[in-house]
Specification:
Layout: E1 3-7, E2 11-18, E3 33-37, H1 39-49, E4 55-61, H2 62-73, E5 79-84, E6 89-96, E7 102-106, H3 114-123, E8 131-135, H4 144-156, E9 160-164, H5 167-176, E10 178-181, H6 185-191, H7 199-211, E11 215-221, E12 226-230, E13 235-239, H8 251-264, H9 269-284, H10 294-301
Parallel strand pairs: 1-4, 1-8, 2-6, 4-5, 8-9, 9-10, 10-11
Antiparallel strand pairs: 2-3, 6-7, 11-12, 12-13
Helix pairs in contact: 1-8, 4-5, 6-7, 8-9, 9-10
Length: 308
């Protein structure tokens, strides 16, 4: 297996639009569109659009879980669902067609029992991927130690691990040490015990993480500005192309997918970051919860420029 993505708190995303959002008024929405959600799942979906195959592992429960599995399989992605008794969560995204503002309602994921956590770890015994992407949040009441258990299993298999998460889970991940992390500036400050960072001090903090073997590569997301990539020997900044932003849902996952696709093909670090930026930017051009169109990525690649 070349690439495995892991999603511990997946969702079914229900997307609709409405003409104006007002309190205490019945709002007539358009017919909802259902799409698979969750960090690792979105990374696999985006990789598929790039022509890079990735299998996806996720927790699935109840009728919503069945729907999630069907939605992913319709995109011709090989799935490894782990069945649990709790219902898979839903997210609700509404676009106000008058103001063009987007409202995102995320529901908490049900916890994973201790027994299921142990069985999930055992289920990885006979899986040997070259690349492992762990992306998204943890379900409520699930300790970051569970995530660390997964990371250790694949580190022992010599898999290269990429983690895109936040909060305590990101802190614990960095302490364990992985191949690549993708913090924003605020998260980078927390990781290096700083109150705040400006652009001039980003490099020092990223280098501190690399020196302490918390990650081989640190990609610092700057939102619409672009991103920095730091390795032991390189510093690269790629600015994001100017596009009409319609939605930011899935943009970060798409960026990760672009980088993983390029990494799996042994591209240079510069090309890795360029493709990541192009994929993330292309996804913001799509309404609702949709991911990028490959044709948009190809067009944006010509506009993505290396600044450093």
């Amino acid at each position: 297996m070349e690439i495995l993505t892991i999603t511990l708190n997946p969702s079914v995303d229900k997307n609709a639009s409405v003409e104006g959002i007002e309190p205490e008024k019945k709002l007539r929405c358009t017919a909802p569109k259902y799409e698979p959600g969750g960090g690792g799942i979105n990374v696999s979906r985006a990789l598929k659009r790039l022509g890079t195959e990735a299998e996806t592992f996720f927790v699935s429960g109840g009728r919503t879980g069945d729907l999630l599995e069907n939605l992913i399989e319709k995109e011709d992605i090989k799935i490894h669902p782990f069945k649990v008794s709790n219902e898979t969560r839903e997210n609700f995204i509404v676009q106000d067609s008058i103001t063009e503002k987007q409202f995102r309602f995320g529901f908490p994921g049900e916890t994973i029992t201790a027994e299921d956590q142990n069985n999930i770890l055992k289920s990885f015994d006979n899986i040997f991927p070259k690349w492992v992407v762990i992306s998204g949040s943890l379900p409520q009441d699930v300790s970051s130690d569970f995530l660390i258990g997964i990371i250790r299993i694949f580190k022992n298999k010599n898999s290269k691990i990429i983690v895109d998460t936040s909060g305590e889970a990101l802190m614990k991940t960095a302490e364990e040490g992985v191949f690549l992390i993708k913090p924003n500036i605020g998260e980078l400050a927390t990781l290096t015990d700083k109150k705040e960072l400006d652009e001039n001090s980003i490099e020092n903090s990223a280098r501190e993480i690399i020196k302490n073997r918390k990650a081989d590569i640190v990609v610092v997301s700057m939102g619409g500005k672009g991103a920095f990539l730091f390795s032991e020997t390189e510093k690269i900044f790629v600015g994001a192309p100017k596009v009409e932003v319609k939605s930011t849902v899935g943009a970060g996952d798409s960026m990760v997918a672009g980088m993983v696709s390029a990494l799996s093909k042994n591209k240079s670090l510069r090309e890795i970051l360029k493709l990541g930026i192009a994929c993330g930017s292309a996804t913001t051009m799509v309404n609702g919860t949709g991911l990028f169109n490959k044709s948009d990525v190809d067009k944006l690649l010509g506009k993505v420029k290396r600044e450093m």
